[in-house]
Design a protein that fits this description.
- A two-stranded antiparallel sheet has the order 1-2.
- The chain contains six helices and two strands.
- It has one domain: DNA sulphur modification protein DndE (Arc Repressor Mutant).
- Helices cover 58% and strands 3% of the residues.
- The protein is globular and about 40 Å long.
Length: 117
Amino acid sequence: MLPNRMQLNAKTEDQLKRLKGYTGLTPNVVARLAFFRSVENEFRYTNDNSNLKLDGALVLDKFTWCGETLQTTELVLKMLYPFLEQKLLVRAWAAHVDDGIASLRNYRSLKDFSKAL
């Protein structure tokens, strides 16, 4: 369902990299946490927030971005957006990561980060 190669917004990617410096967690792991945090907080992708540009330099395959949560991620996306085509599902995934990272980006240590989860 999701394409093999995926990327995020450059601003989101920078925040993921900054968090890696502070916490040691890799961008793909934080992206997974941000995605599910966004879903839990009931964020929903719409055409109104589709102006998110996927212009990040970090282009990874879906297995790296999602890891063991790949099937769950795809099922959640399909459940939330049953009529979106593949190209828009990637945008929805990226929008969820962008939304979820907003609540995680200010942590300066792994200890603080883990408390927030």
